[in-house]
Amino acid sequence: MLQVCLNGARDRAECAHLPVTPRELAAAARAAVAAGARNIHLHPKDRHGEDTLEAAAVAAAVTAVRAAVPGIAVGVTTGAWTTPDPDERAAQVRSWTVLPDHASVNWHEDGAATVATALLDRGIGIEAGIYSGTPAAQRFLAWPHAHRVVRVLAEVTDTVPRTAPDSALGLLDELRTAPAPPILLHGTDAAAWPVLHLAASLGLDMRIGLEDVLHLPDGTPAAGNTDLVLAAHHLIQEPFTPLA
């Protein structure tokens, strides 16, 4: 499965064509799904372009994207940068009027279990975000409800293309005792492409999009999420060879 991460915590200063408004997210999702994406991850934004978990913003983004890509699961972030206090984030989740299919919870962040419990209580699927180089794997594996998540997001924080695949393998080793949910492996910035290629070679779920990387494998700027999805499908047809 290839997930597209439409925007992330970025802003227009980083990427002039970043989808921000519900209408822009819907258009980007429609094009990405037409190019081969099969799952959506997005960050709802407020009127200033900042990430938010406010109910109205979540409802607008999820509703617009669902209408554009019926039948495709749509997920959102619950990152601590949106609302630092985990109890407040959990309260925001409980206030949502339109529920996404899933939401990511970063297990290196304080209060991850509190937010995850709120999602379970609402019947929202959980993507467990496990960052390499953090205690996230141990925290997640110790959570009694780890078996209830829809997938594990193995997130490689090493951005060096040559070393990121080894970092990814190390992270996967940390998760070797994880329960049944599938693992989605992904990297960021220049390492996004070798990590995606490794994920494909291992038969794992993958993701790509403007949240993770702004450039195509050859280093040219991507015109949008569609270019990244098309490049991903091309890359995963090639045999995986670690960089020397």
Topology diagram in text:
Elements: E1 2-5, H1 22-35, E2 39-42, H2 55-68, E3 74-77, H3 86-95, E4 102-106, H4 112-122, E5 125-131, H5 136-142, E6 151-155, H6 164-174, E7 183-186, H7 192-202, E8 206-208, H8 225-235
Parallel strand pairs: 1-2, 1-8, 2-3, 3-4, 4-5, 5-6, 6-7
Helix pairs in contact: 1-2, 1-8, 3-4
Describe the 3D structure:
The protein is of the alpha/beta class and 244 residues long. It has a single domain, classed as Alpha-Beta Barrel (TIM Barrel), CATH 3.20.20. The protein is 36% helix and 15% strand. It is built from eight helices and eight strands. An eight-stranded parallel sheet has the order 7-6-5-4-3-2-1-8. Strand 6, helix 6 and strand 7 form a beta-alpha-beta unit. Helix 1 packs parallel to helix 8 and helix 3 packs parallel to helix 4. It starts with a strand and ends in a 9-residue tail after the last helix. The model has no long low-confidence stretch (mean pLDDT 94).
